[in-house]
Amino acid sequence: MRIGINGSSLLGHAQIDEIVADIGRTEAAGFASYHLAQTGLVDALTTFAVAGTSTSSIELATAVVPTWPRHPQALAAQALTTQAATGGRLTLGIGLAHKPSVEDRWKLRWEKPIRHMLDYLAVLDELLETGSAAYDGEVWSFEGESVRPTETKPSVMLAALGDQMLRIAGRRTDGTILWCVGPKTLERQIVPGINEAAAEVDRPTPRVVCSLPVWVTDRPDEAREIVAKSLTIYGQLPSYRAMLDIEGVEGPADISLIGSAEQVTEGLAVVAAAGATDFTAVVQGFDADERQETLDVLAGF
Asked: Which domains does the chain have, with CATH numbers?
């Protein structure tokens, strides 16, 4: 299981140069990947394009870009530009987001999400692959051709939890990027669903990226309370609630990797045994020493 860092917790307070510096430290420490969510007004793909000039090997992955606010042609243009700027190290993670975000924040209508994603991928994949698309869909359409800034298509992955989205991910993309999904759900729902879908169309075995808070500490009860409070919403959103019910837990804090170095290492091993090909940690800590110990445990796995 490849180990990476999910730096999305920096988005609420860090400047671009701070995030780019964190990506550089992550590469220097030997981690395989760095993931950023697309939230707020910090653009993940632009940040990765900047980071591409000062790094050379680390995979840079969006986790994830919501599809509703961006036409697939616009996202293809930005993704290809970032792919060129990073020397071919981009993984483009995309996802539907959630009905409250779509309707309450973006003031768009949450309609036909499965059709939405099928149409989106139909346009996006052709533009990433060839620079040309001619597709007339029910939700998304595009006809046009342009010169691409790189001939290397970025890997595309899909946030997928339910059966239908896992089927799309397995049949149409390189895998799934997850958040707040535990080992029981990986083993029972995610891995078999996506692998079976990929096998049906002779695609390679998909990647399954699991991402959770990780916190090496001798104050686990306090730490778990903090994580539970910060991630309360994920226990309420229907798609995540269904996954947490498979785990048999109340909220994301109950599946986060929190405790001693030995306990965190054991938790990572359980996630790997459940079928995750990659793990990206949202590193936590009461102080710099705890954060560093957490990073050391992750690097040593």
From this structure: 2-299 (3.20.20.30)
